Amino acid sequence: MNKKEDIQFIVQVASEEHTQFAQLICDTMEDSAKKRGTGIAKRKPEYIIEKMRQGKAIIAVTSDGRWAGFCYIEAWEGKNYVANSGLIVSEEFRKHGLAKRIKQKAFELTRKKYPNAKMFGITTSAAVMKINSELGYKPVPFSELTQDDAFWNGCKSCVNYDILMRTNRKICLCTGMLYNPKEDEKKKFEKNLKVQNAKKKIPSKLSVPKSRKMQVAIGVKKKTKKDSLKDNQ
Ligand SMILES: CC(C)(COP(=O)(O)OP(=O)(O)OC[C@H]1O[C@@H](n2cnc3c(N)ncnc32)[C@H](O)[C@@H]1OP(=O)(O)O)[C@@H](O)C(=O)NCCC(=O)NCCS
Predict the structure, then answer these.
(1) I want to staple 128 with a disulfide (CB 3.0 to 4.6 A). Which of 45, 99, 102, 123 is the partner?
(2) CATH number of the domain that 57 lies in?
(3) How far does residue 100's CA lie from ligand 1's centre (Å)?
(4) Span from the CA of 130 to the centroid of ligand 1 (angstroms)
């Protein structure tokens, strides 16, 4: 494996020039799902290509032009929900912080394209849960995610689909995670307000002690060094 410091990655919104990697991306997705023994919503190269052409995918490549990672975004229920899906990093480039960078870029792209949409994902991956949490996602029951049948139909190719069906789409092996922009804005607003209020409070170091206030009120002048010297003479 390459040394971390040797590799430079370019993480960007994918476009026509990256369609050459679609087959490799699909093969890597399928291969890693098999190795992990977990489910995955399979995607065809044509679907990946479409996402790239629509500017709804993030790709990471090395500075010498090798594919390194991928993820795409998809809107559901009109534009009320957006899923960041299909995250995959080439095996040789894992643990370089690449998934984190790809998800961050997908997050920014989604906020720009769909500023009012709730962002969500379903995953069994500990790494993805960690990344999502850092971005502000919260674990939620499936009932809080999109109820668009087309999204859940994507799970048909997953080995665990029977579980999802048995539970009436309530639970499965994946954890549902949601980022609600309105809640996040509210939290940021409240945090800001707290900071502003804290700034308004006079620090105890600078506030006048009670005894001094009393002296001022009754007109007692604070003794200076000069006054003390005079007293002693
Ligand atoms: C999951 C995956 C995308 C992670 O990619 P990556 O580039 O290695 O992840 P990063 O290096 O950005 O790591 C992000 C964080 O997750 C942690 N992490 C990475 N792999 C992990 C693992 N297998 N188990 C637990 N934590 C892991 C990292 O330590 C890092 O945490 P830190 O910020 O505290 O250091 C990659 O392993 C992969 O492609 N797996 C197969 C496909 C897959 O599972 N996709 C997710 C489908 S939802």
Answers:
(1) 123
(2) 3.40.630.30
(3) 8
(4) 8
